[in-house]
Automatic annotation (TrEMBL):
CDD domains the record matches: RraA_family
InterPro entries from the UniProt entry: RraA/RraA-like, RraA/RraA-like_sf
Protein name, as recorded: Putative 4-hydroxy-4-methyl-2-oxoglutarate aldolase
Requisite cofactors: a divalent metal cation
PANTHER family reported in the protein's UniProt record: 4-HYDROXY-4-METHYL-2-OXOGLUTARATE ALDOLASE 3-RELATED
Amino acid sequence: MTPYARLAELGAATLGEAWPQARIVTAPPRPLAPDMALAGPAVTVRCQPGDNLVLHRVIAQAGPGDVLVVDYGGRTDSAPFGEIMALACQLRGIAGLIIDGAVRDSRAIIRAGFPVFARGLTIRGSTKRHVGAIGPNLLLAGTEVAAGDLVVADADGMVVVARDQIDTALDAAQARAAREEHIMARLRAGESTLEIFGLGPKEDG
């Protein structure tokens, strides 16, 4: 299992709690389906609302395991991404899409199993005229995302980790997951959370 696959399995909540330097996205875009999850290096994109030319460009450039992180200005009155682009991403091995905007063809994308996190859904399409930008630093719901940063997202939320901290963040997340497994084993053996966490009553005085 690759480090990115392991991080997707561990989940955003575990990583966000385990690694103090993690940037937790407040009110992030939401997955199209509850079981969608992704983890990988961000390919950042600034897209002119109402236009999707830059998305066609970045899909042709991105590689296996990349996560497209798209600044669409939070707009949900047009959708620059749909079923055809999702297939194009899958054929290139792209790990998923996070967009601060809307998408369309949600049922087809869910059936295909391509992870998409978006602000909303709309059927209105877009033009193909504006060049846009690939690789800029972005603010996603107030959280900075730079090209190459690790992004982990699932139904619980979204976490960003600087590219030079990925290995240590993975170690911390795995250690936290192991501690939680130990706690759950003690619960199954009959202990209470009060006992495990030392939260029993204290005597006055």
